[in-house]
Specification:
This protein has 24 helices and 17 strands. With 691 residues, the protein is an alpha+beta fold. It folds into three domains: 3-438, no CATH class; 449-551, no CATH class; 562-690, Immunoglobulin-like (Sandwich), CATH 2.60.40.10. Strand 10 and strand 11 form a beta hairpin. The longest helix is centred in the middle third of the chain and has 35 residues, at 404-438. 43% of the residues are buried.
Length: 691
């Protein structure tokens, strides 16, 4: 190796190192500025269950159509939770995997397209705004990039280069990648394409071994699907939930979303519908410049897949820009020409090009017919392909020029354009992080994780035996706030959630109460409750209501409670009183302990002849949150007619479509009635009239 070649190779390694540092900075920098909402919290909960040995998930989180995902993503996310119960290391773990994807993209491009194309591809991927966005939180699809690149790489190594180990490894890798997220199903046609292009290298034993390993990766999901009845067609028809307004049509939406994903445009969407213009005012408008990236990728794919005829037909026009357009087209069909020896001798370049071009095109074709609602993250798998093709196109354009002076001039021009693009995208992404961290973005980026971690640290430092989270939600994993705080406070022995707009709980013992930003809370209706001496307030972004932490109140948030003779129900709830206003009825209960069933509560207004005048039903507080000695208040929206003489109240469960009353029992457990009859006293009627 000559001194000049050593210097070139050293420069290549330095450029690669700088590129990877840039990729890592955008994916790992400021990890607290990441979203942590319901999906991320539910993924963390599942991964913690596995890491702590509490459960072995056989299915993952539900997809957008209510079909459960395989559990592979949960298994992968369990790795960082073996070492920490905080989501921050797991967020960094995702960033590391995505930085690795940039390195793998470089390695694939270096092998098949040459050094210059590889560095361009890696640099474009490193600064891709959407590439960085999809690398910064606990989403299954954020795990895809390294597995996607490895899947394609092993297909080429195995079939284009006749590597036996790669042929065997490819099929389980494909199975794992598709199980991480269904968007990777676009890789299946790509794998079948490699079989068709290299049929003589399909050896039965190796193929069967690969398929057997792939089947083994599917085993947990298959067991889970069988256990939960998903293998039945009737179950699919009953459980799958699609948007009834979605129209199954052929459209250009897939192309639009793929284009903006590759270009790195429309990241202002994360600022939300109210703030996106304010964000756009902070960065230059360079959409036309950024569109050159997907344009270059598309043109390269077009040439590789047989665009010679059309391209040659316009060669005269191309001469105005490139003195030798036929040479440029030839070079697009022979990547790596400028870096001979980088491709294995047995690799057939033309067929490799077809695979790489198909990698870009197949995901778009798959969703051009909108058989499901098409969203941007479905195109994560094609991002490495797009940057590979864009790098190959730029490399071929430079190599097409024969006069050395023109080649150098074009090379310098493209380098300047590339550096301008890199600087612009890096700045736009950094500006976006700063923007969403410093102001509320309704409908866009959620409250950044580091705000929540500050609250978490304060709660964990106090080591409370019981935490009650007060918000306008109470059912995890479906409601966001219970899902989020159930995950963040997982180390604590008891964390309970109360919809404070219609429910209040006075715990039997000492507890901390975390008040989430929610208007209309019964025990904290306005900012005045945050001024109490023992209350700690945690401001969020400007424009957002704060969180607050305080000792849970030990007094009822009601006046004029009418006590009644206790009425015992079979699930451990005892009705002890009520309170009335003009438009509401509040029932007061004492709880004897947790109940496995989630009950519904009802109250009827009856006249003197016990005819029903009005009624209201609502979910009671979930039974798993009940603790012995707690006092529970349930409010019902029920304006009482003037002739109301009696209330009839109780609890029931829903078993399929059947209603089953929870019986009233005596102290010995014997059946008494289906509900509690409560005659209204003159004092309570007077309270009702006065409001």
């Amino acid at each position: 190796m000559t001194k000049d070649s050593l210097l070139v190779r050293r420069g290549e390694w330095i450029a690669l190192a700088l590129t990877l540092l840039l990729a890592a900075a955008l994916r790992l920098g400021a990890p607290g500025i990441s979203e942590f909402k319901r999906d991320e919290a539910n993924m963390m909960t599942r991964a913690l269950d596995l890491a702590r040995g509490r459960d072995l998930p056989l299915l993952g989180l539900s997809s957008s159509v209510n079909v459960p995902n395989p559990p592979i993503s949960v298994y992968l996310f369990a790795v960082p939770f073996l070492f920490s119960d905080s989501p921050l290391p797991a967020t960094l773990y995702v960033g590391v995997l995505n930085a690795l994807a940039v390195l793998l993209t470089w390695a694939l491009a270096r092998r098949y397209l040459g050094a210059r194309a590889a560095l361009i591809a890696a640099l474009l991927y490193a600064v891709s705004p959407w590439g960085a966005i999809y690398a910064r939180k606990l989403w299954a699809q954020d795990l895809l990039p390294p597995f996607v690149v490895l899947t394609v790489f092993t297909a080429l190594l195995g079939y284009a280069e006749n590597r036996r180990w790669a042929r065997v490894a490819h099929w389980p890798l494909l199975a794992l990648t598709v199980q991480i997220h269904y968007a990777a199903v676009s890789l299946i046609p790509l794998s079948l394409l490699t079989l068709a292009l290299w049929p003589r290298r399909v050896h039965r034993r190796e193929w069967l071994a690969g398929l057997l390993l792939a089947a083994l990766t599917l085993l947990p999901a298959a067991i889970g699907a069988y256990r939960d009845g998903w293998l039945s067609p009737d179950t699919w028809r009953e459980r799958v939930q699609t948007d009834p307004d979605h129209r199954r049509v052929v459209s250009g939406r897939a192309l639009d979303l793929a284009w903006l994903t590759v270009a790195g445009t429309d990241i202002h969407a994360l600022a939300g519908p109210e703030q996106f213009r304010a964000y756009r005012d902070t960065v230059p408008d360079a959409d036309l410049l950024l569109a050159l990236i997907p344009l270059a990728a598309t043109l390269t794919a077009f040439c590789w897949l047989g665009g010679r005829g059309i391209a040659d037909g316009g060669w005269r026009m191309a001469k105005l820009i490139i003195p030798n357009p036929r040479s440029a087209i030839r070079n697009l069909h022979t990547p790596g020409k400028a870096a001979s020896g980088t491709v294995h001798a047995r690799a057939e370049r033309g067929r490799v090009q077809i695979v790489l071009a198909a990698w870009l095109i197949v995901p778009v074709l798959l969703f051009t017919w909108e058989w499901t609602e098409v969203v941007a993250h479905y195109f994560i798998p094609l991002m490495p392909a797009a940057y590979l093709l864009a790098g190959a196109g730029a490399d071929a354009l430079i190599a097409a020029l024969r006069p050395l002076r023109l080649r150098r001039a074009l090379g310098l021009g493209l380098a300047a354009l590339l550096l301008a693009t890199v600087a612009l995208q890096a700045y736009s992404f950094a500006a976006l992080l700063d923007f969403v961290d410093g102001r509320a973005t309704p409908g866009g980026f959620g409250t950044p994780l580091h705000y929540l971690l500050d609250i978490r640290a304060e709660i964990l430092a106090r080591s409370p035996a019981d935490v009650i989270v007060l918000s306008d939600q109470e059912v995890a994993p479906f409601d966001e706030i219970p899902a989020v705080w159930g995950a963040l406070l997982d180390p604590l022995p008891s964390v309970r959630f109360v919809d404070g707009t219609r429910t209040a709980v006075v715990p039997a013992g000492e507890a901390l109460e975390l008040i989430a930003p929610a208007p209309g809370l019964r025990t904290c209706p306005d900012a005045a409750c945050l001024d109490e001496p023992e209350t700690v307030v945690f401001p969020l972004r400007p424009g957002e209501l704060p969180y607050a932490l305080r000792p849970a109140p030990q007094t009822l948030p009601l006046t004029d409670v009418v006590a009644i003779e206790p009425v015992h129900f079979a699930n451990g709830a005892t009705l002890t009183g009520y309170a009335l206003t003009d438009d509401e009825v509040a029932l007061v209960w004492r709880l004897d302990g947790p109940d496995e069933r989630d009950a519904q509560a009802f109250v009827h207004a009856l006249d003197a002849s016990e005819a029903r005048l009005a009624q209201a039903d609502r979910p009671a507080w979930p039974g798993r949150y009940w603790r012995a000695g707690d006092t529970l208040i349930l409010w019902f929206a029920l304006p009482l007619p003037p002739q109301t003489a009696t209330l009839y109240a109780g609890l029931y469960t829903l078993e399929g479509t059947a209603f089953r009353n929870i019986e009233v029992i005596d102290e010995a457990g014997a059946y008494l009635a289906q509900g509690a009859t409560i005659p209204l006293t003159p004092r309570s009627n007077a309270n009702q009239r006065s409001g």
